[in-house]
Amino acid sequence: MRRLTLLLAASIVAGCQSPLPAVNPQMAWVEFSTPFPNDKLLMAERLDNQRLRDGRFFQVTPGSHELIVRFDFEVPGGGGLGMMNGPSERLCYLTINYDYFEAGQRYVLEGRSIAFTPGARLYNAKREIVAEDRESYCLM
Questions:
Q1: For residue 122, is it within any domain?
Q2: Does residue 109 sit within a domain?
Q3: Structural domain that includes position 73
Q4: What would the pLDDT profile of 76-113 be if each residue is shown by its tens digit?
Q5: What is each CA distance from 2 to 6, 9, 68, 82, 134, in whole angstroms?
Q6: Among 35, 62, 89, 100, which is 20 to 30 Å from 122 by CA?
Q7: Which of 23, 40, 73 shows the shortest CA–CA distance to 31?
Q8: How far apart are the C-alpha atoms of 91 and 137, rounded to whole Å?
Q9: Is 74 part of any domain?
Q10: Number of domains in the chain
Q11: pLDDT averaged over the chain?
Q12: Residues 6+ apart with CB under 8 A from 137
């Protein structure tokens, strides 16, 4: 288990070191934000049911898309035999659908957690909410 954790950490660090690709003006760009300190990681997993190689962003063609993100966050008490345990991490996958992506526009997908409940909102450049997660699946 420790080896798997180290391998995962090394791959995340290696992925963060490579530069982001140039923004394509013919596509929409989706970046991520986690405003709360207990929200550890928000990462792209799938775009229209296709696994992505780089989880740091989405770059999508105009129109309708389904985004699936991985969201890791801390929960109080570790979910064990009461609140005496320290915090533990919860791993969830959130699905966001949006029909109106526009070429050349930037969007922000913001992950938030309230206790054990994950959530995500997609904002346009005017900071208006244009979509929210419609489905979540948590492993812990």
A1: yes
A2: yes
A3: 26-138
A4: 775 555 555 667 888 999 999 999 999 999 999 999 99
A5: 6, 11, 27, 26, 34
A6: 89
A7: 23
A8: 9
A9: yes
A10: 1
A11: 84
A12: 92, 93
